[in-house]
Amino acid sequence: MTMQKNTNQSVKQIALADMVAQSGYQRPTSPPQVKTITDNFDESRLGILTVSHRDGKYHLIDGSHRSHAMRNHGYTHATCIVLTGLTYEQEAELFSRQNENKRMLKPLDLFKSGLEANDELAVRINEVVGENGFQIGSGGKKNYRKITAIMALYAIAGEYGIYVLDDTLCLIDCTWSGFTKATQSMALLGVAEFVSRYGMVEFSDRLRDKCLTVWYEYEEEMRNRSSDRIISPRDRFCRLLVLHYNAGLGSKSKKRLVWED
Question: Residue 76 pLDDT > 50, yes or no?
Answer without folding.
Answer: yes
